[in-house]
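Q: How would the structure tokens look for this protein?
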Amino acid sequence: MTEGLLPPGKYFMQGNIACAEAALIAGCRFFAGYPITPSSEILEWMSYRLPQVGGHFIQMEDEIASIMAVLGASNAGAKSMTATSGPGFSLMQEGIGFGMMTETPCVIVNVQRGGPSTGIPTLVGQGDMMQAKWGSHGDYEAIVYVPNSVQEMFDLTIKAFNTSEEYRQPVILMSDQVISHMYGSLVVPPHEEIKIVNRKLPNVPPSIPDFKPFDSRYEVPPMALAGMGYRVHVTGLTHDERGYPYYTHEVSTWCVKHLVSKVRNNAKKIWEVERFMLDDADTIIITYGITSRPAYQAVKMARSEGIKAGMLRLITAWPFPDEIVRKVSEQAKVIIVPEINMGQMIHPVKEAAECLVVGLSWAPGAVPTPDVILDTIRAVSR
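A: Here is the predicted structure in token form.
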């Protein structure tokens, strides 16, 4: 059903608005959130657009309530979403962990800004990358996408919904202030050409006496929704296949291994990267998000000086594409990791790489220019 959705065509649009329109096309019909710079345009646009497509919007009293409302709506069958920035993302972490344990699909957009604390609300940062992976307590596997354009704000929002539905867990889109606030070209393909994934529902009747909502026969079990008549217990406690708390190490082992293995076993399917001038490169930049844009230019400038530079852009930050990084590092003398923080994604790069890894840490509030990145390339390539 496409009535009320953004028609196919070419647009000049803000990143945050492209994200909201993509969510509607992906099937999002519930949004709960709290205003916070620089993500507020997503909330504001969804408040205007959701009623037009038969959806529901609610502004909650804070980010804790927002994530819990999103999880509740998802358990009732609605594709659900929220958007925030660093301080709100911190408040959502317990709810994100609850969503992981209960295997509840939803999408969380974090438009990163300067930190820590309230930091620089109106300017860029990339300081939440490790929090996206490790923010909530306990063991689970995060799935995190990092756009670098208005087009990818659209494309990766749809991908985030699809991946969330496929693996039954929260999926995070890590944007940043510049990408979300920039205006750029957007091409919306015919709706019938856009892949849309919906969660699998049980194929047995609710009356079945031994129905198990977390049936171990499935890598990702079908999701019984509230109101369908199935006996379902939704809890953040470690639980058995029936969903009931059961405190034995055997059950704990099954439960936690299940949560992590459904992502780890499919990591190669989830990984997405972009390669740029890598064929003969021996000085390689590994980057993501807004920082990749000046990195493109720096690589081209380095090539004009005879330096064999190349770039690997992380589109999927988590699960981290370690095998891809390891393979790329085998041809490199040095890898440079520029990021707008004091060193975060450099750590998994160092763990995977077989060569020297150098960080280019850039304080929040501004994007490193191509000249800054080029200076680092020159310095390590001597």
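The chain has a mean pLDDT of 97.

The chain is about 35% helix and 20% strand.

Upvote if useful.
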